[in-house]
Amino acid sequence: MSRFRSLVQASLNATKKALTWNLDDLMPPVEKYIFNFNSKEEVKKWHLYSDSEYGGLSSASLEITDEGNGSKGLFSGNLSLDVMEGTKWNIKRSGFCGMRSKKFDGFIDLDSYDTIALKLKGDGRCYISTIPLARYLPTWRGNVIDASMEMNPCRILGMSLSVNAEGGVPGARSGPGDFRVEIDWIKALRRE
């Protein structure tokens, strides 16, 4: 087929699609996978951090496991309130670990969604499973920072999950020790 003929055919196909559109073509799906922890490639999309970068003794790992009911991410480790002797850092608080996604290729657009959902299996510590986008708070190293910032859902750069030895929801397990959370997926949802 000649180049001119293929351009005309492509134009006709686009025009036909535009004339026969329906509302479903304009609406994004009600849910969108952001991360699906079903392969070892998924682990490469995350960076682990802990207080050990600043002289603390906490540690974390992220791996894909398959325990008979499908592959899942396993974020686990140990929270310690202790600090290495002679550290050059003057840290005032230890006992935190987290996993932060590497920057997306460009941005992820979540403007059509109102909730982030996570399918998690925890160990009794505080792990949030659904979060309305309107309630996201700016954090640094697992602590909410006092800043009036508005999140732009069209330009999401990355996401993170963290666990702290201190704080959290009243009644939830806290303190130093081992932690373990299985992560099946992270999705964006449109509930309204």
Mean pLDDT: 81
Distance between the termini: 47 Å
The total count of strands amounts to 11
Q: Given the helix and strand composition, which structural class is it?
A: mainly beta
Tell the overall outline. Answer: elongated
Query: Major sheet, described briefly?
Result: 6 strands, antiparallel
> What is the helix/strand order?
HHEHEEEEEEEEEE
- Radius of gyration in whole Å, from Cα? 22 Å
Continuous helix count: 3
Low-confidence stretches: none
In percent terms, what proportion of residues is strand?
25-35%
Approximately how much helix is present in the residues? 10-25%
Protein architecture, described:
Strands 1, 3, 4, 6, 7 and 11 form a six-stranded antiparallel sheet that branches. Strands 2-5-10 form a three-stranded antiparallel sheet, with no helix packed on it. The chain contains three helices and eleven strands. It is elongated, with a radius of gyration of 22 Å. The mean pLDDT is 81. The protein starts with a helix and ends with a strand. The protein has 192 residues and is mainly beta.
